[in-house]
Amino acid sequence: MIHNFEDVPSAFELGVEPGAHHFTELWFNFQAPPGPLLRTDIDARIGGFYDGWRFRLLAEPTWNLSRHVEIGGGYELNRIRFPDRDAALDVHVARLRLGAAVNARFSAVALLQLNSVDDRLGVNLRVRYNFSEGSDLWLVYDEGFNTERDALAAGEPRRPLSDTRVLRVKLTRTFIP
Which side of the chain, N or C, has fewer Cβ within a 10 Å radius? Predict the structure, then answer.
């Protein structure tokens, strides 16, 4: 059982009013041990959600093709209801992940995520090079694609195919005193 407290400073999209909110959820979580060829993690929650309720289900299967390559997926459903306001929202999120490691120093991950609420496909590519213990160089590429490109209202322009694109180079260094 999870007891949540959130202090909302201002109303947001779901119509949740500002102020203190307390709600409780029942939680079930199963994580398969790492290592097997195929494993699945499952997370389910049901209970209060601000002034309504939410059911959340997350399933994440992972397949180890070899000690160097892993394919993972995921599906998340959030069914949110506010009966007193006659409001509802269903959110579907699908993920696909491909990870590869040449060795302990060089690895790459590609992640695709499709979100039903904002009709977006997110792409994230990360390449990591560990040149010494505690020091990593990252090359990260993110792009967001609109899957529903029609105009939202009459007279508005059509949405672009891509609305965000970022390329980052990050250097991390762990200092040990």
Answer: C
Query: Rounded to the nearest 10 degrees, how much is the dihedral formed by the CA atoms of 121, 168, 62, 79?
Result: -40
Phi, psi of 67 (to 5 degrees): -70, -5
- As beta bridge partners, residue 23 has 4
What three-state secondary structure class fits 70? strand
d(CA 119, CA 146): 6
Task: Show the domains of the chain with their CATH numbers.
Answer: 26-173 (2.40.160.10)
Whether the per-residue pLDDT at 147 is higher than 70: the answer is yes
d(CA 135, CA 167): 20
Q: Where are the alpha helices (DSSP H) in 13-167?
A: none
DSSP state of 164: E
**38-53 pLDDT per residue, tens:** 899 999 999 999 889 9
91 half-sphere exposure, CB direction, 13 A CA radius = 16
